[in-house]
Amino acid sequence: KLHSDLDKGVGTVKYTLSGDGAGTVFTIDETTGDIHAIRSLDREEKPFYTLRAQAVDVDTKKPLEPESEFIIKVQDINDNEPKFLDGPYVASVPEMSPVGAYVLQVKATDADDPTYGNSARVVYSILQGQPYFSIDPKTGVIRTALPNMDREVKEQYQVLIQAKDMGGQLGGLAGTTTVNITLTDVNDNPPRFPKSIFHLKVPETSHVGSAIGRIRAVDPDFGKNAEIEYNIVPGDGGNLFDITTDEYTQEGVIKLKKPLDFETKKAYTFKVEASNLHLDHRFHSVGPFKDTATVKINVLDMDEPPVFSKPMYTMEVYEDTPVGTIIGAVTAQDLDAGSSSVRYFIDWKNDVDSYFTIDATEGTIATNELLDRESTAQYNFSVIASKVSNPLLTSKVNVIINVLDVNEFPPEISVPYETSVCENAKPGQVIQTITAADKDLSPAGQRFSFKLSSEASNKPNFTVHDYRNNTAGIETRRNGYSRRHQELYFLPVVIEDSSYPVQSSTNTLTIRVCRCDSDGTIQSCNVEAIFLPVGLSTGALIAILLCIVILLVIVVLYVALRRQKKKDTLMTSKEDIRDNVIHYDDEGGGEEDTQAFDIGALRNPKVIEDNKIRRDIKPDTLRFPRHRPPVEDNTDIRDFINQRLQENDVDPSAPPYDSLATYAYEGNGSVAESLSSIDSLTTEADQDYDYLSDWGPRFKILADMFGEEESYNPDKVT
To answer: Transmembrane segments in this chain: where (predicted)?
Structure first.
C-alpha cells in the first residue's frame, strides 16, 4: 500500500506505478494506493520485482512528491521436488573390495529457495540395492556394504537411489534415479585343469614342428587375468615335445621337437604346468596360481620308407679303372616291424649318371664307363631305396664320387721360350731359365727334374742346370759362338716328374746365335727363338704369301695393259662412239647441215642388199653382194638386231678386232623411202644419183659426192 502525506482523503491525489511487472503482474489503485498481484507468482521464475511509485495532483498532473523505488520479493514455498540431472548412473568397483569401498557420488538438485525453510534441504536414501551398497544421506556417496563380493558369482547390480527435500520429513517432495554397478575382475582365481591326465595318440611319421594335440586349463577370471602360460615340467620324454599357448582359446598346443620312432620308443609321459601371467599380490595367501596335469603320448606305428645308414656317401676311384669295378656300396634298412626287403636304383637326371651302375639288391656301386679325371674330377648323383612290400615308400641319399688322378701325362715346358746366345758368350753363362707344367693333378710336393738328352750331353755347346725347385737354367759350355758357322742350335731337354709311374718328355729348345755388344746387349737377331714346330716356320709362310701377292699384281697389270691397247686401237677419236662406226674424211655441210650423217636414216629393213661393204673405212672398191633372207614386215626390232648380229659374226670381211655396228629401223610406210644405197638391191654402179640435184640445197653435198664417185668408177663404159 502506498500513501502520501499530502493525501487528505478528498481525491486530489493520484497514485501511479511503473517498473518490472507494472500493469502485467502488479496493478495499483489510483485513489487508495493499494498494490495488487493480478496473476500467480513463481519464485523459481523471478524471485523479486523492482517497482517505482509516485503521487501526482489530479488537476495539474504535477508530482506532489519525488518518485520512490521499492522491491517486491516473492516468498518461496516447497513446490519443486529434487531432480538427478546426471542420472541414470553407471559405476564399477573391483570385486572382492572391502566394506566401505567408494563406488560413486550422486547429486540431486532442488529448485526451491535453500535460504528459506527446508524446501531445498535434500536427504539421500537407497530404495533398492541393499545390503550390497550404502549411501551417505547428506553427500550422496555410494559405498560397498558387503565384503568379498565375487564377480564370478554376480557381476551386475542395479541400485535405486531416492532424494527427498524438507530434510526427509513427512510431506517433503522426492525424486529417484538408478545406478548400474558392475564388479570388475581381479585375478583371484588360479587356472585349473578339468582332468589330471590327458591321453594323446601321435603317428610316428608326424613332422617336426607340427601340432600333435591340445590341452586346456580353465580360469574363471576375465581378460588378462585369465591369460595362461603352459610349460612342460622336465622329466621323461619332455625334451621331444614343446608346448605353446593359443592366444585366442588359451589352450596349450603341444608340438613335436624331434622325430618319433615307434620301433625305438612307443610311449612318452610328461607333466604340463599351467599358470597365470598376471598375478595380484593381494591374493598370494590364497595359494599358488598354477595347476599341473599329466600328458601321456602313445606313438602309432606307421609304414615308413627305408632309412640309409649315412646321410651322405663319399667314395673314391682312380681314373681309367676298368668298367665293372665296384667302388663302394650304400645300405638302407626297413625299420618297421615287418622288415621288408629293399631295392636300390640310381635317380637318373642327366647323362653323367650313366657312368655308374648299382646293384638293385646289394646296393654296390660299380663303374659303367672309363673315367677321366681331366674331364670330370667329381660325380654327384642320388640313390633311391624303396621297400619291396610298398614301392611307393622311398628314400633318397646323395652320393659323391671323387676321381683320383693317375700319372698319365708327362711334364712339359710351361711356355714357349725365345732363347738366344751372344757370339761373345762365356762358359757357364745362364742364357735362359725354364719351368715345367703337368696336366695331371700334381700331388703335394711334386718335383720336376731337368737334364739333357743322351745324344746332346756329349756335345760341348750347352748344358742344363737343375735348380731342384722345378726350374732349370740353360748354360753355355764354351767360349764364343759363330753365326756364320752355325746360326741355330737345337737343345733337347728331358723333363721327368716324381709321381708313379714316372712320366718324362723331351722338349727341343731352339737357341739362336745373335750379335751382341760388349755388355751382352743383343744388336741383331733375325729369327725368333722358339721350339721347333711341325711344318713350315712363320717366316717361310710370310715369304710364300708375299710371292703369291706379287704374282697376282703382275697378272692384273698385264691384263689391264692388254685391254688398254685394244681401246687405243678402236678409239681413234675422242668424239662420240657413233662417229667411229663409219669414218669419212669429208668436210661437213656447214651450218645448215646440222645433222651431218644420220646413220639411222641410212638403214631400211625392207631393202635387201646382195653386197655388204665394210662400214668402218671409206669404201674403195665394190664387192659382190651377199644374199640374206629378207626381213618380214612388222618384225620386232629385237629380232632384227639379233639377225644382224649373227650375220656380222659370220662375215669374213669383218675386221678381226671388236667393232661397233649400228642399225636403225626407219619403219614401214615412209613416203620418201630410204635415201641410203647401202641396203639397195642393186650395186652402186646401177644407181643414178642425178635426181639428188633436184632436191635443193640441203642435198647438194650428197649429190656432189655421189656424182663424183659415179664419174670416177673405172668399170663404167663411157
So the answer is: 530-561
Neighbouring-strand partners of residue 275: 229, 290
CA distances from 623 to 612, 642, 652 (A): 8, 24, 13
- Count of CB atoms within 10 A of residue 429's CB? 15
Written as one string, the DSSP assignment of 688-699 is --GGGGGG-GGG
Q: Which of 209, 263, 262 is nearest to 240 (CA)?
A: 209
CA distance 712 to 570: 31
CATH number for the region 83-184 comes to 2.60.40.60
CB neighbour list of residue 712: distance below 8 Å, 6 or more residues apart: none
Strands 123-128 and 102-105: unpaired
What is the residue whose three cell numbers read 758368350? Answer: 425
Residues 6+ apart with CB under 8 A from 516: 422, 423, 424, 522, 523
Nearest CA-CA partner of 59 in 17, 12, 4, 7: 12
**Domain 15-73 coded CATH 2.60.40.60:** yes
**CA angle, 230 then 235 then 241, to 5°:** 55
Residue appearing with cell numbers 536427504 = 123
Closest CA to 343 of 357, 327, 362: 362
pLDDT in tens, 182-222: 998 888 888 999 999 999 999 988 899 999 999 999 988 88
Nearest to 580 by CA among 592, 568, 564: 568
What pLDDT does 645 receive?
A: 78
Instruction: Looking at mean pLDDT, say which of 234-243, 466-475, 524-533, 667-676 comes out highest.
Output: 466-475
The domain segmentation of the chain, as residue ranges, is 15-73, 83-184, 197-300, 307-404, 412-524
Nearest to 661 by CA among 589, 613, 596, 607: 613
Specify burial of residue 472 (Cβ count, 10 A radius: 0-12, 13-18, 19+): buried
The pLDDT value given to residue 674: 53
> What superfamily would CATH give domain 307-404?
Cadherins (2.60.40.60)
pLDDT confidence tier of residue 676, bands split at 50, 70 and 90: low
Which ranges constitute the DSSP H helices of 248-373? none
For the four alpha carbons of 557, 559, 563 and 566, in that order, the dihedral sign comes to: positive
Q: Which residue, 606, 586, 613, is CA-closest to 597?
A: 586
CA distance 516 to 268: 95
CA dist 16 and 29 (Å) reads: 8
What are the grid coordinates assigned to 479, written together? 767360349
- Cα torsion at 614, 620, 624, 628 (round to 10°)? 20
Longest Cα–Cα distance of the chain, Å, equals 204
For the stretch 525-567, pLDDT in tens is 864 443 334 445 677 888 899 999 999 999 999 999 888 876 6
Average pLDDT over residues 49-67: 85
> What is the rounded CA–CA span in Å between residue 649 and residue 572?
23
Give the torsion sign (CA, 112, 115, 119, 125).
positive
Q: Which CATH number applies to 197-300: 3.40.50.620, 2.160.20.60, 2.60.40.60, 2.60.40.10?
A: 2.60.40.60
Rounded Cα distance between 272 and 295, Å, is 7
**Pair 332, 233: CB distance under 8 Å:** no
Query: Would you say 162 and 174 are in contact if contact means Cβ atoms under 8 Å apart?
Result: yes
